[in-house]
């Protein structure tokens, strides 16, 4: 068997199957959960709604990738004033297959805040960070083996010129022949999912879990829909719901579990701009590795994928004034300002609708941070040598010098901006604080016997850094705790 | 199975009108491909968004009456919540499609050699 391929153990004739542990979702939370359980000898089935897409078979950041590896083609929105566009991976490996691969350890003070406010037992920064070290080895976290791309260097140059703190974010990548342009993302289909399969886990792709069947406080089986549309049932002793911060609460709500489920969505909202330089700088298929952290954790700056299609989107809100810049897209790159929001959102599963409704409310402080973030980011780009900056909001001015920043500040309104987020978490916070938490200190849903969550939903609030490392470290901590307590029961 | 053709009927002409107005030199073929792509993508929206889009699209078609093209062009620059988001969705999808497929398209929809072929 090729260990990078899912085991196709399920035939169309099957209408049921069973296992010790069902893992729903194969992303940053689900894949390590499945691997560690299988390696500990549990009989595991992983059910993944998306398909298995070999890395390199679709162009990164392309519309085809959106079609194949994102939920709803990447067009999903949290309703609010303003609405926030968000994206979720939907494929084997989840978000880890499509994301930028920028690695950030969970900050020690964030772990302490989570422990104290949400009352998480046995959450200790040192041991979580030592798990992070293991993750770094398992997914090969490494700095670039050579010089960064031009858009990345420009971020660095702007920050240096302003005396602002910046650094290079390492990535989960392998670089054959130390070639920075040949990076191969060490996502879950390259790391933890093959490990799970090698230890006997059965991985079923193209299969969606609709809901869990509950009997009193225990779940007994899951109703699934196969790629062909046929429904079937998988029974289990334990279930780990790892569908990501939007789908996990939706699955739980459809199963009748509601207490503190889905009412505390946290995200890192971002606003963006396009910056034009006097020479060709665009790298269509990669993102900058430098991040500017001078105002962190409230505010961070970084770069986005910038091919011509995405550039057209960045200029869209002011097309009549900005549109002609698209002809210079090779001299341009897109940058973002991300904030650590204190607003919250909801995930609401409505009977009869397949997808949950998602809402998000930015606070006044969040809106102000977005305004100052976009203004500071524009300044950063001017210092980096941009000749023109095109902020992405309706009625935005073209920024050509520092004098234009006041006009930018005055005309910005979050309602006019295209706000988006790719970092979603906190919809089933973990901890013993029953007023806030849907799950206990190790991810078991309160007042159930065998229903666990183990993904981004558990993070009590937005970590203020790229979250995948936090998601993975928490998932591994929780699964080790589970194995040490439940091994004798199966 | 009824929903798919009706979504095409509701959204496709609106997308074409917007593209012809925003990008006056876009070729008929490119506009047609972009509008088809837009409809395909709208079909895969989450269920509640698809329902919302269908309702707004139907209202736009209904109110547009006998000169839908002029009406769409006028209203497509509105700032009213929801309605503006519908037009923004159409523009986002079709612009992304056009510039990803033909990156050297000019801002008026033309190409340097005068065609997209
Ligand atoms: C475009 C993008 C860029 C990002 N960049 C970075 C970055 O640079 N660094 C970083 O640290 N983080 C980044 N992130 C965030 C990171 O990818 C997520 O935090 C992480 O993947 C969350 O892990 P998860 O397990 O909670 O969910 P996911 O990784 O999203 O996995 C959930 C899986 O569950 C499956 N699923 C959902 N519902 C069901 C169901 N009903 N039945 C079966 N399967 C289901 C989904 O298809 C999906 O595969 C990015 C995310 C995106 C989308």
Automatic annotation (TrEMBL), chain A:
Residues 66-269 form the Glucose-methanol-choline oxidoreductase N-terminal domain. This is Unannotated protein. The keyword Nucleotidyltransferase does not apply. InterPro entries: FAD-bd, FAD/NAD-bd_sf, GMC_OxRdtase_N, GMC_OxRtase_C. Residues 357-475 form the Glucose-methanol-choline oxidoreductase C-terminal domain. GO terms for molecular function: FAD binding; oxidoreductase activity, acting on CH-OH group of donors. It holds the Pfam family FAD_binding_3. Keywords: FAD, Flavoprotein, Oxidoreductase. Residues 19-55 form the FAD-binding domain. SUPFAM superfamilies: FAD/NAD(P)-binding domain. It comes from freshwater metagenome. Belongs to the GMC oxidoreductase family.
TrEMBL record, chain B:
This is Unannotated protein. It comes from freshwater metagenome.
């Amino acid at each position: 068997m090729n260990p990078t391929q899912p085991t196709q153990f399920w035939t169309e004739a099957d209408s049921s199957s069973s296992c010790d542990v069902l893992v729903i979702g194969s992303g940053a939370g689900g894949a390590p959960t499945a691997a560690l359980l299988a390696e500990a000898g549990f009989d595991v089935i992983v059910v993944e709604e998306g398909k298995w897409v070999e890395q390199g078979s679709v162009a990164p950041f392309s519309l085809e990738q959106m079609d194949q590896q994102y939920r709803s083609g990447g067009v999903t929105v949290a309703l609010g004033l303003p609405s926030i566009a968000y994206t979720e991976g939907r494929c084997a490996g989840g978000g880890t297959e499509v994301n930028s691969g920028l690695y950030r350890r969970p900050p020690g003070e964030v772990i302490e805040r989570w422990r104290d406010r949400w009352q998480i037992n046995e959450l200790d920064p040192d041991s979580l960070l030592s798990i992070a070290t293991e993750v770094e080895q398992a997914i090969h976290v490494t700095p670039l083996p050579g010089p960064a791309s031009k858009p990345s260097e420009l971020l660095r140059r702007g920050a240096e010129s302003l005396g602002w703190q910046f650094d290079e974010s390492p990535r989960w990548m392998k670089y054959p022949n130390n070639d920075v342009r040949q990076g191969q993302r060490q996502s879950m289909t390259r790391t933890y999912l093959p490990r799970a399969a090698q230890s006997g886990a059965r991985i079923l792709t193209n299969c969606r879990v609709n809901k869990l069947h509950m009997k009193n406080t225990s779940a007994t089986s899951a109703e699934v829909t196969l790629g062909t549309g046929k429904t079937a049932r998988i029974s289990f002793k334990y279930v780990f719901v790892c569908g990501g911060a939007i789908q996990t609460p939706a699955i739980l709500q459809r199963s009748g579990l509601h207490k503190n489920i889905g009412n505390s969505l946290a995200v890192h909202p971002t606003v963006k701009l396009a910056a034009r330089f006097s020479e060709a700088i665009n790298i269509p298929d990669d993102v900058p590795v430098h991040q500017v952290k001078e105002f962190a954790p409230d505010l961070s700056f970084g770069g986005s994928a910038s091919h011509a299609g995405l550039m057209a989107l960045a200029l869209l809100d002011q097309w009549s004034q900005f549109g002609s810049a698209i002809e210079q897209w090779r001299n341009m790159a897109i940058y973002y300002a991300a904030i650590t929001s204190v607003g919250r959102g909801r995930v609401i599963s409505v009977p009869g609708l397949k997808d949950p409704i998602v809402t998000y409310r930015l606070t006044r402080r969040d809106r102000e941070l977005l305004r100052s973030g976009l203004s500071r980011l524009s300044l950063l780009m001017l210092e980096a040598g941009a000749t023109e900056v095109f902020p992405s909001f309706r009625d935005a001015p073209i920024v050509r010098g520092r004098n234009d920043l006041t006009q930018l500040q005055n005309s910005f309104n979050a309602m006019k901006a295209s706000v988006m987020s790719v970092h979603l978490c906190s919809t089933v916070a973990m901890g013993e604080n029953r007023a806030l938490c849907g799950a206990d200190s190790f991810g078991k849903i309160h007042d159930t016997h065998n229903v666990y969550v183990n993904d981004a939903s558990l993070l009590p609030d937005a970590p203020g850094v790229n979250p995948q490392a936090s998601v993975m470290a928490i998932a591994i901590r929780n699964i080790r705790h589970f194995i040490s307590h439940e091994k004798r029961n199966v | 199975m009824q929903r798919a053709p009706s979504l095409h009927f509701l959204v496709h002409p609106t997308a074409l009108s917007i593209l012809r107005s925003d990008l006056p030199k876009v070729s008929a073929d490119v506009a047609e491909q972009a509008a088809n792509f837009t409809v395909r993508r709208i079909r895969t929206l989450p269920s509640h968004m698809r329902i919302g889009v269908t309702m707004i699209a139907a209202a736009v078609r209904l109110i547009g009456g006998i000169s839908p093209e002029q009406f769409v062009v006028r209203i497509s620059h509105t700032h009213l919540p929801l309605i503006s988001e519908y037009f923004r969705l159409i523009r986002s999808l079709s612009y992304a499609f056009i510039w990803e497929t033909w990156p050297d398209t000019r801002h008026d929809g033309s190409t340097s050699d005068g065609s997209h072929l």
